[in-house]
Amino acid sequence: MKWLKRKDNEPPVISLEQQRAQKLTEMGAQLWAARQEKSLSLEEMVVLTKIPRRLLVAIEEGNLNDLPEPVYIQGLIRQFADALGLNGVEFASHFPVVSLPTIPKTAGKIRLMGQLRPLHLYLLYIFVIVCSVSSLSQLLNNAALRASNSQSNPQQETYLKTDPTHTKSSTKVQPVSDTLNSLKDNQSVQIGVTLKSSSWIRVVADGKTEFEGVLPEGTHRVWKAQEQLTVKTDNAGGVLMSVNQQEAKQMGEPGKVEEVKIAARPES
Q1: Is the pTM of this model over 0.90?
Q2: Count of beta carbons in the 10 Å neighbourhood of residue 37
Q3: In this predicted model, what pLDDT tens digit does every residue of 193-229 receive, in sequence order?
Q4: Domain ranges of the chain
Q5: What is the helix (H) or strand (E) element at residue 265, kind and residue range?
Q6: Tens-digit pLDDT profile for residues 130-165
Q7: What's the Cα-to-Cα distance from 247 to each of 14, 17, 33, 35, 238, rounded to whole Å?
Q8: Which CATH code for domain 16-94?
Q9: Contact (CB, 8 A) for 224 and 189
């Protein structure tokens, strides 16, 4: 029985893939919040970072399966963070690319010392990784730049470069209900929720309750539905909500109950 107790007290082993998924979700939420604070749209981030929009969305939502190899992901995160005024190198370093080899337990000190690798091999290993990330990131930047130049709207690019008011948008928060009716014929609907303060929230997707409970301040969650999403909260002023990757807006006044229904297709 004592042996079983020791086993139960041991922490669960998390695979490298799970570590990457958890860290990407956390970092993506931080990048999304930083972008919302600067009132920058995804289209503007494409121009600033030269990264395709689908990759920016995958990073913010923590969709590891929609992104390339981990070494590329770290480079994309660095570019994303740099464009938002963060320290991209330091920020991206928290994303796990490879796991260092562990030293197995041995019975004697002589055997343990014999298995240790020289320090210079680790330094060389790190140097190779850094060089690979830098060169691969440059190749990815060139490909993204060519794709952006061929697909971007010239009139929109001129507006971004010449209109001085476009770089600084108003910080006044508009109610979410003012923009919900602007949705057209979409195949699905998606909402992103960021908590400015701890609030109770309930999310119903296609008639099924996806979440109900209290979320702490700073939480960022994303939900999708094929037909309709319903969001209800007891503190509308503490919840920022974005619809289909649009600009996040406050649901209502602080301390008030608010319920919003968003349909993928307008009612006939």
Answers
A1: no
A2: 12
A3: 898 888 999 999 999 999 999 999 989 999 999 888 8
A4: 16-94, 189-263
A5: none
A6: 777 777 778 887 777 777 666 654 444 433 343 444
A7: 35, 31, 11, 10, 16
A8: 1.10.260.40
A9: yes
